[in-house]
């Protein structure tokens, strides 16, 4: 399995990279059919006029490629670790739904 981590307007630190790899390893522990994963971390530099702060400006996006399908999730928060956590929770729900659909599938017997 190949994990690609990119940063846009953001330097990828070893701690962030290790956090992502650990979360994805736990999430895909029971799925051996994952082909590749792409994670894009970015920081939006827009500032709110009233509070002079950037709100929800750390964005995490991920694409997981499985045979025949792609799963996508995006999350944004004030902190990069929070946005990564929210994104992995969204992907975990999608993977569980995909796995349940595969287990429930029964081909027609002719």
Automatic annotation (TrEMBL):
Keywords: Translation regulation. It holds the Pfam family Ribosomal_S30AE. GO terms for biological process: negative regulation of translational elongation. One of its GO terms (cellular component) is cytosolic small ribosomal subunit. Gene3D superfamilies: Ribosome hibernation promotion factor-like (3.30.160.100). GO terms for molecular function: ribosomal small subunit binding. The keyword Cell membrane does not apply. The keyword Disulfide bond does not apply. It comes from the Bacteria. InterPro entries: HPF/YfiA_ribosome-assoc (IPR050574), RHF-like (IPR036567), RHF/RaiA (IPR003489). NCBIfam families: yfiA. PANTHER family: 30S RIBOSOMAL PROTEIN. Associates exclusively with 100S ribosomes, which are dimers of 70S ribosomes. Belongs to the HPF/YfiA ribosome-associated protein family. Short HPF subfamily. This is Ribosome hibernation promoting factor. It comes from Acinetobacter towneri. The gene is raiA.
